[in-house]
Specification:
- It is globular, with a radius of gyration of 20 Å.
- It contains 3 helices and 9 strands.
- By secondary structure, the protein is an alpha+beta fold.
- Strands 1-2-3-4-7-8 form a 6-stranded antiparallel sheet.
- It is 22% helix and 33% strand.
- The protein has one domain.
- 22% of the residues are buried.
């Protein structure tokens, strides 16, 4: 009787500590692979977004790559910002931004879709923040404008942050990505903020 009780408790304990849902590798592989182009041009990627401000210019962001090593994540984005200053022609600023962070530093409750974004981005921006606003998201920006500053550090402001935003082509994909991200954060031991 004692042995049967012990085996039963062991099975229940294993089930309680078992992993629910896809593994960390399967989850992160899905996130990485689904950003890839669905068609011929980069605008066909799930990780592409475009925001236009009438009379001022536009902002485009392309997630070039999403890579990981266990719970360490690296996201590389190509950013083009065009501002139309009064009486001046369009002047694009091209950069490549690399953000690195550990999923264990992310507050799982912070992962959400930003519905307050500009109308053409509404429902397409995933926001995540670190636990207790710890400055644990590292940013580096490289200048990609032709000229003497090409390839030089363009100075990410701030270089260390507590919040990250990822923009996507559709609200449906953003929702799926946020769900996968929250799952991965949980698997890596991300904890909610104290308050």
């Amino acid at each position: 009787m004692k042995r049967e009780l012990f085996v039963g408790l062991l099975v229940l304990s294993a089930a309680a500590h078992g992993q629910a849902g896809p593994s960390l590798t399967d989850t992160l592989d899905w996130m990485k692979n689904t950003l890839a182009p669905k068609g011929i041009t980069y605008t066909d990627r799930n990780g592409f977004s475009y925001h236009s401000t009438p009379g001022d210019g536009h902002y485009t962001e392309l997630i070039n790559s999403f890579s990981y090593r266990q719970c360490q994540v690296k996201i590389v984005k190509r950013i083009e910002y065009v501002s139309k200053a009064l009486f001046q022609s369009e002047r694009p600023f091209l950069s490549e931004e690399t953000d690195t962070f550990s999923l264990s530093d992310i507050d799982p409750k912070s992962v959400h879709i930003d519905d307050s974004a500009y109308e053409d981005l509404r429902g397409r921006v995933v926001v995540l923040s670190t636990t207790d606003d710890k400055k644990a998201i590292h940013c580096q920006t490289i200048n990609r404008n032709p000229g003497k500053d090409y390839g030089k550090d363009a100075g990410c402001v701030p270089a260390l942050d507590d919040t990250e935003q990822l923009r996507f082509a559709t609200a449906e994909y953003a929702e799926r990505f946020a769900k996968a991200l929250k799952h991965a954060v949980g698997l890596c031991g991300g904890k909610p903020s104290a308050f």
